[in-house]
Each structure stands twice: as structure tokens, then as C-alpha cells.
Amino acid sequence: MFFRGVNPINLDAKGRMAIPARYRDTLTEHCGGHLVATIDTEERCLLLYPLAEWEEIQAKIEALPSFNPAARRIQRLLIGHATDIDMDGNGRLLLPAPLREYAGLSKKIILLGQGGKFEIWSEERWMATREEYLAEADGGAELPEELQNLSL
Amino acid sequence: MFFRGVNPINLDAKGRMAIPARYRDTLTEHCGGHLVATIDTEERCLLLYPLAEWEEIQAKIEALPSFNPAARRIQRLLIGHATDIDMDGNGRLLLPAPLREYAGLSKKIILLGQGGKFEIWSEERWMATREEYLAEADGGAELPEELQNLSL
DNA sequence: CAATTTTACCCACATTTACCCACATTTTCC
DNA sequence: GGAAAATGTGGGTAAATGTGGGTAAAATTG
């Protein structure tokens, strides 16, 4: 159950996106087409999880202490924006308006496979962010040790 | 019994809010539509619990040491403002005027799923608070250890 | 105790959403 | 390169949801 790849997709007038066919079988088998979308707190994009994966994450987040401000912040942002979405008969997802708005999604969007989850970007934003990433030099001093020794 | 998601809702002229249909079945099954609303002590928003959940919490709060000023404060604020509310036949809640006032609720409000409970915000206030949260960097120094290693 | 206001319950209409079908387009296979 | 299958796209319709308001019961006040 690993997703990968960049997929340019068009949102239709109702805010629906067609999941590329190659992911559909995996998604129906693994979670009956039940997904959960929420926001990314660092970038203006969305995260899309199979239901089971999301529930594990939500359990961890909910267990955090309620009176810790940093924990409250994460709970409000992540759980607060998490929305259940089911694939329709045509393999499409209807993205809720508040989430579309957050990520600035209009017509052209990018679905990015990221292992256990997907990311959803506006095409424009994705292009710009990718360029930034490429422009930053590798091998900066701030790399975690695990990365320093990573062999590709 | 996990609530999540952002729900933009309109209060009507009588101060009633329609609970989104997807939560209704859960609420009627789990607590017969009996809920308890109270205030959040940190932010100007309301907390909305299924009756059973609230009773557990109230028991814990009542058990706090009476001579501790911070405990007394919490008791007075939380238990003092807690109000029983039932869903009507149309799946709506009538929010009491004092609570609406506390949270500054007029017409446009936001219902935020937060796991075992909901939060109710004025739309305006929620937007502002969300922007603040987003502006704060993740990975600040004050994060609980559990959070530092959380992998989304 | 009567009069007035408030609350709760219910019904009916407007709007939105979900589901389904049909067409266009792309891909695959021969 | 052409035909057939699979995929992507658009939109119509029935059902579910949201909204407003009326009426009767209850509570409150003078």
C-alpha cells in the first residue's frame, strides 16, 4: 500500500476530482473507498489518507494533553479540518469547499503520491514550491543525521 | 464515536443551529440527542459534549482539590457554564443566549469536530485564530515530546 | 390568578447534495 | 493505424438536508 507519482488532475465545476484509475483498486480494497482529507500545517496543501491510516493518527493526536497550547493548536488544525470523503461510483472525490479554499484549489490541481498518503496541491502552488526546493542547496548543515548518511 | 471536520453553519433568528446530518445518527444513538455545552476557558469559543462524555469530565473536575484556587476557577467556569441541550425533531440545537454572547456568536458560526467533542466558534473569530495558528511555526521548542516524533 | 412573554414542538417550503446515466476522450491491444 | 476498451467529464434528477415560521404549551410577571 504505497502511493507514488505526480498526477495532474482537473477539478470539475462541482469541485470533484477523478482519482487516477491505477490507485482505485488499491483504495477500494484497502479501505472501501473511505478516505479522510485534512490540511497540511506547513504548506498550503491538503493531506489525503485512507480511513484506517487516519484513525491511527487521530488517536495519537487526541491523546495529547489538552492544556498544552502547542497540542491544542495541532488538534484544532489537523482534527478540526479532517473531513471524511468517499469515492463515488466513478472514482471521484468531492473536496469540501473549506479545504479547497485553504489550499487555493481552482481548476488545475496536482495529486502527489507520498507513501501511505497523498498530497493535493494547486498546480500553480506546487510548481512554485518545487522550484524553491530545487533552488535550495542540498547538504545544508541542518540535515538530520539519518539524512547525512542516506545512500540513494 | 469520533468527530472531525469544519462545518460552516448559520444561526437562525431564534439562535438555533442545525447539526450537520452526518453527525446526527451518531448523536442520537450514542446519547439520545442529549448534549452539554459549556465555555472554553482559554479561547472565546464553546465546547459541546455528548452527555455521557460530559458527565465523566464533570466528575473529574469536581474531584479536584477545593482549596486550590486554580481548581476552583476551573470548576466555576466549566461547571458553572455547562448547559443541557437537546436536539429538536429537525436535528437543531438552541444555544442559550449567555453562551452565544460569551463566544460572540451572531449569524455565521463554525462547528469544529474535535474527537470526543465539538467546538463552536464565531466564523470571524475562528478565521483569525486559525491564521494565528498557521503563522506559528511547527517544531517550536515547547512541543511535548510525543509531538516531536509524531510522523504524519 | 390573569395576562404576556418565552420556550418547545411541528409542519411545509427551498436548497443542496448524492447518485446515476450518458457522452467525450484517451489509452491499449491487435 | 484502427477498433475496442477503459478512463475522464459533464450534467440531470430524486432524495435528503437546511431554513423559516406558526401554534400550542409552559413559564413568568404583575
UniProtKB/TrEMBL annotation, chains A, B:
Domain of life: Bacteria
Subunit note: Forms oligomers.
Name of protein: Transcriptional regulator MraZ
Location of this chain's protein in the cell: Cytoplasm, Nucleoid
GO CC annotations on file: cytoplasm; nucleoid
Domain SpoVT-AbrB, residue spans: 6-53, 82-125
Single biological process term from Gene Ontology: negative regulation of DNA-templated transcription initiation
InterPro entries assigned: MraZ, MraZ_C, MraZ_dom, MraZ_N, MraZ_sf, SpoVT-AbrB_dom, SpoVT-AbrB_sf
Family designation: Belongs to the MraZ family.
The organism of origin for this protein: Amphritea opalescens
GO terms for MF: DNA-binding transcription factor activity; transcription cis-regulatory region binding
Primary site of residence: cytoplasm
